[in-house]
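Task card 7
Instruction: Convert sequence to structure tokens.
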Amino acid sequence: MSEVDEAAAPAAAIPSLEEVRALDRAHVWRPYTSSEAHATRDDLIVTGASGCRLHCADGRSYLDATSSWWTAALGYGHPRLVGALQSQAAQLAHVAMAGATHAPAARLAQKLSQIAPAHGDPLTRVFYSDNGSTSVEVALKIAFQAFAQNGEPERQRFLSLPGSYHGDTLGAMSVGSLDEFGKVFRPLLFSHNDEPVPKHEAAWRAFFARLTETLRRDASTIAAVIVEPLVLGAAGMSMYPAALLHDLRQVCTETGVLLIADEVFTGLGRTGRRWACDHAEITPDLMCVSKALTGGLLPFAATLATESLYDRFRGDISRAVMHGHTYTGNPLGAAVALETLNVFDDERVLEQMAPRCEAVSAAFTAMAGIPGAVRPRALGMIGAIDLGDGGYYGTRGWAVHEAAKARGVWLRPLGDTVYVVPPLTIAMDDLTQMLDVVTESVAEVSRV
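Output:
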């Protein structure tokens, strides 16, 4: 295009806030949003993000207490992650990993194997996918197929924890809880989990005792147990003791049942250690990783497995893992994930988290003094408290959401559960402001 042509070309029109909202309501189908809410609720129109703040079209900015659905562990716009994405895009954006490979995927697999939980048979193999749900699907398929083609085809059952959430694909939903997320799909699922979420440690101990009994009695029919280690995110940040997970690992080993750890939410520092499994000093047979793996920049996931499990697939093509998709091992995602892990090491992210974790714990413990606020709990950079027993459809948490939004903090409650999962690297001043706003907002709602 000539200089004259360039001068004559009109500048791209920037849509107004009203235009964006109208287009969104006319054409977008939002996740977990009713049609009525979509048509009437004025959600944020985000134009940018930096550090731990979302910048919006109305000129306001908000401290993000949710890390964009628990992904932005290093905050927004980290220059090294952006640089890794730009550099890789200029070199190789994508190539199918069927009959080809590339350096980012190979180097990332090595790095993940090196930093995986090291308390038993090491996790040496990495299968790539594109999101947390799919990483769970891969783990379920591997577990099932490993037994089916090695002389134990009767091992077809999967056990899970009450209130568990492992994703929204049908396999992942089958090992999740039949709560608000899953009950409508019950006729399509191969397994059902109807148990209520334990509210106290004694109830968790009773559940794990029953789980152990089932494993020892029915091991010959069970392929795997899948757990969210220590924290069940979508179940209102429900937490259970690390000792129970440690003992479960032992029982799975004794009975030959595979243990799948879904570290999609809990992994990469969220619980204060690199992996939630590290609190229990266990290594699972399969581990699912996503969300923080790319720092919130790109959809990307990995399923890690032991070498002994990989060996069960040796042979001709009929014994290969029967899973794959177009963007398996995408070079952009792999490059950004590798840089994310390097930033964790170079900037000593885990080593500097202690004062932030202490601040979260102290703030939520103190909220127990607010009338109507119960069951305060915290682990690492997770803090949660309940404002009743309305569950996912409860409304009090959303009242806190509105109160916090007016004060410049963005929350996304789980019904009557108010929680924070801020970036692991959030500045202490910002974290203090965020926790003060949450406390004020909970207190305001409790007075109504």
